[in-house]
Amino acid sequence: MPTRSSRPRWSLPQRHTTVTPQPRSDDELLNDVASGDHQALASLYDHIARLVYANVRRALDDPIWADTVVEEAFVEVWQQADRFDPSHTPAVIWILDLAHQLAAEHNRSDEPQVAAVPATSPSREPHVSHVIGARR
User: Fold this and answer.
1) Nearest C-alpha neighbor of 102 from the set 132, 68, 78, 51
2) Which residues does 6 contact at the CB level (< 8 Å), separation at least 6?
3) What DSSP assignment string belongs to 103-117?
4) For the segment 66-115, what is each residue's pLDDT rounded down to a tens digit?
């Protein structure tokens, strides 16, 4: 006659728990953008572009110009991310301020202000436009 063991012969299947990574903060994303991380720019755009557009739209009467200014703002974010200081202001405020300045420049002129591409990194800006354009 078989004897009972204190340990069962079968066991429940192991539960595989996956740890979902915490989303990176806007400050972390902007610091990654400063390091040339295209995916960080795309994530940052996905997270706050609507907010930036809403704020720019309040300053400009034309939704097409507002859209242009938002794109210009994210090009500026890409080009100036190394100037961001998280101890001074949160990333979202820094970006909103950049966009507001561009909208104000547009209001002072008849032509949109197109962000200049620095001569030292000609390959960076076209990718930014591609990232932003794909997310509209």
Assistant:
1) 68
2) none
3) HHHHHHSSS--PPPP
4) 999 999 999 999 999 999 999 999 999 999 999 999 999 988 875 544 55
